[in-house]
Amino acid sequence: MTHTVVDSPVGPLTLVAHRGALSGLYMTDQRHRPAQETFGPEDAAPFGEVEAQLAQYFAGERTSFDLEVDLIGTPFQRMVWQALCDIPYGETVSYGELAARLGRPTAARAVGLANGKNPISIVVPCHRVVGSTGDLTGYGGGLARKRHLLDFERGAHPALLPL
């Protein structure tokens, strides 16, 4: 494992690589963020493409990511995280809708728990999942960041967050 920290409009992002693939993208004070010492030594070398694609995303030039990722979690979590990647840029779905798409219509709560433990925020767009009424509910990076990312994707292009 290696890591690096990059600046972004939503604050510093800690990128973590496992076996050369992106395995973590964590925001400051993110819920379920592993302990810093588990990220391994700091080394920016494996993250050139990740940094380039994040820069393109935040410049409004990229709507999806094409990166090698290593999603470390249970089979159910990985299934949810993969489904997150199918939510179109600028759109949202509810936890219940996502559960139904997975063929588990009664598993909205389990989908929410898996969504909350997504280790690769932004790239695996867990911010695109909202409550059944469309309200913003829960986000490991905080609701202000979730609102910022959704507004950005909907074309509002908000300024830097005051973090």
UniProtKB/TrEMBL annotation:
A single GO BP: methylation
Gene3D superfamilies recorded: Methylated DNA-protein cysteine methyltransferase domain, Winged helix-like DNA-binding domain superfamily/Winged helix DNA-binding domain
Keywords, ordered alphabetically: Cytoplasm, DNA damage, DNA repair, Methyltransferase, Transferase
Catalytic reaction(s) noted: a 6-O-methyl-2'-deoxyguanosine in DNA + L-cysteinyl-[protein] = S-methyl-L-cysteinyl-[protein] + a 2'-deoxyguanosine in DNA; a 4-O-methyl-thymidine in DNA + L-cysteinyl-[protein] = a thymidine in DNA + S-methyl-L-cysteinyl-[protein]
EC number: 2.1.1.63
Active site: residue positions: C126
GO-annotated cellular components: cytoplasm
SUPFAM superfamilies (alphabetical): Methylated DNA-protein cysteine methyltransferase domain, Methylated DNA-protein cysteine methyltransferase, C-terminal domain
Subcellular location field: Cytoplasm
Domain Methylguanine DNA methyltransferase ribonuclease-like stretches: 1-71
Residue ranges of every copy of the Methylated-DNA-[protein]-cysteine S-methyltransferase DNA binding domain listed in the record: 75-154
Primary enzyme class: transferase
One function term, GO molecular function aspect: methylated-DNA-[protein]-cysteine S-methyltransferase activity
CDD domains xref list: ATase
More info: This enzyme catalyzes only one turnover and therefore is not strictly catalytic. According to one definition, an enzyme is a biocatalyst that acts repeatedly and over many reaction cycles.
Assigned protein family: Belongs to the MGMT family.
HAMAP family reported in the protein's UniProt record: OGT (MF_00772)
Physiological role: Involved in the cellular defense against the biological effects of O6-methylguanine (O6-MeG) and O4-methylthymine (O4-MeT) in DNA. Repairs the methylated nucleobase in DNA by stoichiometrically transferring the methyl group to a cysteine residue in the enzyme. This is a suicide reaction: the enzyme is irreversibly inactivated.
Name of the protein in question: Methylated-DNA--protein-cysteine methyltransferase
